[in-house]
Specification:
Arc Repressor Mutant, subunit A; 8 helices; alpha+beta; Gyrase A, domain 2; five-stranded antiparallel sheet; globular; 22% strand
């Protein structure tokens, strides 16, 4: 899947840009109201870029704003619920000291782990594991080795997974990079099922 990028002209010749992954991350981050500066820090984006992204989300009726910060509107909550039919909210974990993020993907298509790892690395991850739920246990699909044998602390953090789900774990230099790399792989896997309203954000 091509990386969807929006570029917006600004004075002084700067070009703020955001991706579909930034938009999805923002929707997940707004479980609680956040200010623009907080969102910029959590996404490692410039405040001008975040302002443009938030304006687009607001114009589409996905978020609102009040004194405490930006929040999901009723439409935004419904959009997030649709997203959760494809993949669940990101979960912060750690892999060998690296900040990492895990995402449970529902009803995944057939996949090749190495291709998905390459996608994560292409999106600034240092590495990724793509796992599956088999006989109620999270395992490496290649050899059915249980994740709990090497990363029991990650397994303890993962909940609400079901038989056949895929689990993406991406790690990177910073939490925002890990977050967006994991989301990128989830989007790559579930591209055909993404809500149309979401794609409007990057048009």
């Amino acid at each position: 899947m091509k990386n969807l990028v929006v570029r917006v002209d600004r004075k002084r010749g700067a070009y703020p840009e955001y991706t579909l992954e930034d938009a999805i991350a923002t929707i997940f981050l707004l479980k609680t109201p956040l200010g623009r500066k907080q969102i910029a820090e959590k996404l490692e984006l410039g405040e001008g870029t975040v302002r443009t992204l938030l304006r687009k989300l607001s114009n589409l009726g996905i978020i609102g704003s009040r004194q405490r910060g930006h929040f999901l509107t009723e439409k935004g909550e419904k959009l997030k619920a649709k997203l959760n039919e494809s993949f669940l909210d990101p979960i912060g974990v750690s892999v060998d000291g690296w900040p990492a993020v895990a995402i449970i993907v529902k009803n995944p298509p057939k996949f090749k782990s190495i291709e998905l790892r390459d996608e994560a690395i292409r999106f600034d991850a240092k590495g990724a594991m793509i796992l599956t739920v088999r006989n109620g246990e999270i395992v490496f699909p290649e050899d059915s080795r249980p994740l709990k044998e090497t990363y029991p602390e990650i397994v303890r953090k993962l909940m609400n997974y079901e038989e056949g789900d895929a689990i993406i774990i991406a790690w990177a230099e910073t939490p925002p990079k890990a977050l967006k790399a994991a989301i990128h792989v989830a989007v790559f896997m579930k591209e055909k099922d993404l809500p149309g309203e979401l794609l409007e954000v990057v048009r």
